[in-house]
Amino acid sequence: MNKTFDLEQYLTDGVESIVSDAMKAALKNPKESAFLLQYAAFAKRAAKVRARHAQAGRHVPSFLIASITSRCNLHCAGCYARANHLCGDSGDSGQMTDDQWDGIFAQAAEIGISFVLLAGGEPMLRRGVIERAAAHKDILFPVFTNGTVLDAALVELLDQNRNLIPIVSIEGGEAQTDTRRGSGTYAALHGSMRAFKQRGIFFGASITLTTANLKTVTSDEFLNDLKEDGCKIAFYVDYVPADPGTESLAPGESEQAFLADRLAELRAKQDGMVYVSFPGDEQFAGGCLAAGRGFFHINPCGGAEPCPFSPVSDTSVTDVSLLDALNSRLFVRLRASELLKEHHDGACALFGHEDEVRGMCAKE
Hints:
The protein is an alpha/beta fold. It has helices at 7-25, 30-55, 80-83, 98-111, 127-134, 152-160, 174-181, 185-199, 214-217, 220-228, 253-269, 322-326, 329-336, 354-359; strands at 63-67, 115-119, 141-145, 164-169, 204-209, 233-238, 274-278, 297-298, 304-305.
């Protein structure tokens, strides 16, 4: 790793770049542009807060991933969460309450976190948490949803609170999407996209990248269709082979190189879309950004984890503050280790190293 690399500045620049690109993508949308202009000021203020923490020897990342529920109404093939029993059909018993999540969002804003990605399960099933998030205007909340449970009231909530940005999951065309996510899913999520477009709601698409759909979901035809639907963000996430026998679907070095070249080409076009890749964009950050280097994950019960694909925790945010969680034994040891810096294939540097990660939770 280059010793002169400034991770703090890289992440601050990254936030500003995302906001700037989003503003360009929303130029023809006065309501969205007005909000993003206001949010840009919030993001700059948050960067100054993080800088003060850094001067005091405390590292605060720009991003937080919050899995606000384990419930989901779909049974997607190869779902990492279901394969690891982190997602199911049952209720939210034992999981963090609306008030607790509200407190987490308030803490996040206070310490300088600019983005909180809301995930699940299916986050739209926790309407109370979504409503609490809406009130925190100094945080941008991308909501990663399967797009099948939105009703008129939720669409109205999104319309009135532009800091909530729905990111709908799609696998390609109708056949590819329904094969993985279930019959009728493509039609349902397209109904949601039509509702967003009619209201001028800024939204994006989350695309699970595999060796089978790589060329399709990065093609001009597919992306032009998304733009026609009103989509402004394409968020590519590498497939994690949680199900045995699906290892061949995980993008390898050649696929990652293709994606990097294709994204550079797409970004140069400035075609009104924002393109994000995870973990592909981490190659510019000197390694994996988990464990608080660039983000960390809170599970539905409050456990602070390195990332969603490394469900190991030694600390709960129901017991300690976010700042204390960032300095947990596990996070400190991970950030000091070589695990996050190692070259890796697939979507997660920590995937396949669960025993090593769990070992870092142990007292010396």
